[in-house]
Structures are given as structure tokens and as C-alpha cells.
Amino acid sequence: MTLSAVWGDLDRLDDEMAELAGQVAELTSYARRWVCQRAGFEPSPLCLLRPLAELMDLLADGFGDLRALALDDWADLRHGVASTRLDLRAVDDDAVALMPVVAR
Question: Which domain of life is it from (predicted)?
């Protein structure tokens, strides 16, 4: 693997991480919209499952909290990876500058 390929992989990493963050957002939105529906538990006042309808609100709140926590933590991780990538590139550039050039 060439050095440029390695740097290319690191340069694309942020895009990949952004895509994963989008997937978390989509997943939690889907869960809140389709999984946490009260209507399935409230077809009539006599439905035995009616008390579960209130739990759907709590579950939806949980998915909202999960989304916020996951995306905040992921944003911090993306920032750390980007910062480290810049530091690694600077160290690599410094090392290359100190090496003598060999003509072939």
C-alpha cells in the first residue's frame, strides 16, 4: 500500500463517519415514527393492551435521547479523528523534510 493510498483512506474517513451519523439519525427517526405508535394499543377503550400506549411515548423519548447522545458522541469522535489525522500528516511531513533525498 502506498503512502498516498493511506492518506486517501484517512481523508475519506470523515465522509464515511458522516454517512454513519446519518444512518443513526434515520434509524432513530424511523423508530420514533413507526415503532413508537400509540394507535396500535388504543383501538378501543376496552383494549387490554391500552396501558402500553403510554409506554410508547417513553420509548419515543428514549429513542430521541439515544439519537442526541449518539450523534453528540459521534461528532466528538469525528473531531478527534480529524484532529489526529492533521497531526499525523504534519509529523509525516516533518519526517520527510528531515530525510535526505536519494537520487536513483
Answer: Bacteria
Residue span of the structural domain in which 65 resides: 23-97
Task: Quote the CA–CA distance of 11 and 82 in Å, as a whole number.
Answer: 9
Tell me, yes or no, whether 5 lies in a domain: no
Number of domains the chain is built from: 1
User: How far apart are alpha carbons 97 and 104 in whole angstroms?
Assistant: 18
Which pLDDT tens digit goes with each residue over 56-103?
999 999 999 999 999 999 999 999 999 988 888 888 888 888 887 765
Backbone torsions φ then ψ of 51, nearest 5 degrees:
-60, -25
